[in-house]
Amino acid sequence: MKKNNKIVRYPKTLNINIGVIFFALIFIYLLFNVYIYLTAKHVSYYEVDEGSIRIQTTYTGLALREEQLIYSGESGYVNYYLKDNSRAKSGSLICSVDENGDIADEITRAGSTENTLDNEAYSNLVEEMKDYSNAYTDMSFYHTYTFKNDLQAELMEAVNLSALASMSEYAANAEGDHTFHRINASVPGIVSYYCDGYESVTADNFTDGMLDESGYKKDNRKAVTHVEAGDPLFKLITSENWQIVFAIGDELKALLADDSVIKVKFKSDETTAWATYEIRARGEKNYLILSFNNSMVRYASERFIDVELLLTKQEGLKIPNQSIVEKSFFTVPQNYFTKGGNSNSSGLLIEATDDSGEKVQKFIPTDIYYSTEECYYVSEEALTKGTKVIDPAGGENYVISDEEKLQGVYNINKGYAVFRMIDILYQNDEYAIIARNTSYGLSQYDHIALDGSIIVENEVIN
User: For residue 275, what are the contacts with CB-CB under 8 A and spacing of at least 6?
Assistant: First the structure.
């Protein structure tokens, strides 16, 4: 029997693993998205919100007060009895001038040794301390230093007067001989022992050169032991009303134009006070004049005072400067705008040429970005310079040519960039405050591109 060696081969079947294909597709999809992400423009956004900018501005100003210089009628040796910047009543003894110098020497010697206050002076000091202690509150702590200075001045006056009283007979004889002269305050005021030539300067007669502190000098009269007839002895500041004046720029002038009251911080001691103010223009410069009705005695020894204007003036919508861009627009008179096409969109009828070369009218929908009383601002992307715009009322055609620039930001609420005009009220190095509720502008909670310089109009934002 013959053996059958014929072998029948069956075709191989392709075994497809669905799972492998599925994961391969996912891997390709992931690679594609990573590529899109790495190559796409990434736009950070900023949410518009209400805000304000605190403006802190520091100036050195010239202090103007009602000052009355008191001069010596005789030549001689001078002794002072009141502390600098202390209050003097009308008739208070301020100083004395001794023509011979004998009594001046004795007063100086007696004042430098131990003295016992008389009962009246001692009682007055005790009563003042009791009154201050009874009236003290934490809210009035800043009065402590004023009280301290006043108490020291009264003690000094009492000691010197005591020294003068101890030799009253000798002084009386000298007064009788007209060689010893007591100088009393003719009116109540603050006693100041320096003079500088600015005593008669007011807000009406100051000059710009007076505001330069570099060449300023003042003369301390208390350091003088001998005076000539006609020399200044001291001055009396006779009013609590005083002023500070300094030059300001146009930006601050505009910022302060709508108000008359401002909060001021004195840099020397960080205290604050409210001042009324006015702005005066002289030539090409503007000057701010701050007027106070308190705190004068605290700074009576200073002619130039460093102050900081505390302004929280501008409130509105707060946006970063990085978002702000500038864009050019065509301006078209409002009477050339009409509605047309298949919608109620506003636009312009322009003169165009069809395929056969015939001139025809064509309606172009246009977005309005800003308006004045006469014109609308339209994008340069929608039209070209030289385009003839047809008056829908049958008047003369208008040729597009005028361009204006607007400041604005790119609104990305709808997923693509739309330019929105802004009205900047105030701007510092980082942020700008813009007006609320402007036509064609921004609203609170709008999303805008954080960096406006990388955005193109109508660009889709990822």
Answer: 244, 261, 262, 263, 264, 290, 291, 292
